[in-house]
Design goal:
Length: about 325
Amino acid sequence: MSYDREKQVAIEAAVAAAKLCQQVRRDIPEAIEKKDKSPVTVADYGSQAVICKALGDAFPNQPVVGEEDAIQLRQPKMAEVLTKITNYVRELIPTATPEQVTGWIDRGNGKVAPRYWTLDPIDGTKGFLRQDQYAVALALVEDGEVKLGVLACPAMPVEGSKPGVLYVAVRGEGATMVPLAGGEPRSIRVVSAEDAANFRFVESVEASHGDQSRQNAVAKAVGITADSVRVDSQAKYGIVASGKAALYLRLPSPKSPDYREKIWDHAAGAIVVEEAGGRVTDMYGKPLNFADGSKMVNNRGVVVSNGAIHDTVLATLQER
Ligand code: AMP
Ligand code: MG
């Protein structure tokens, strides 16, 4: 089974959404508070609208499980925000109306199925607001296995060019990266076991999204002496996949021990790392479960590595 068409549609949609996000960021977005108190911006909504429209046109029968919904946006007091979102979407889809925009966003409220897409229209919204890293993350899942992942990181530095990287992986076909500004995709590989002197480890900027003291203790115990590199969003997966770090640890925060990871925060990143030769499991070595719902209820924490050090990291985690 080839995923050429899915890949092409997903790449075009993610690149368009990344453009919208960068445009919003140049205009300095404001944070809107969601019901769960987390921030969202006009770019999160615009990105979900653009991507769900593209997926709906190309694959009308395939559900999209996305992070955002348009419930809040339909309230009369949000009319001004909806107008703003629509104006950004119109830079890509000139005929878009506010009703269409809310409809496209709500197309992203599908359920996990034998074949579905999962979307984080802006992963790392806090990083986006801080002018740091963020990602547009889109993945196709079949029978619980991620088959295709597209991860746009518009703020990722590129040597000798303007920032912005697109990571793409198809199951069994390897992982690539290409500057968002254009160019030839090149294959990426995780850092090899022989390169241990250059091992680094990445974790979230937001301390409340993990357990930084335990993460740092484990990294030191497996021989990574350099300080952690703190990065927002699934950009961390891109960093491991391209060999710039050997390890990404995301251990449950002591402040929210009952938090469950969401599928859209990991699906696209996970396949990019796996296809670059790395490994992704939860903190007990279990595969991440993309088959049952938007929350990975039976997984705890996430461990992402170059593969070579994975078992050592898991063993160390049982001890500390
Ligand atoms: P990061 O940028 O890697 O810190 O991850 C951002 C993601 O963290 C957001 O998309 C949220 O879904 C997720 N998140 C929110 N609260 C928590 C938490 N308590 N533990 C782990 N992840 C969280
Ligand atoms: Mg997210």
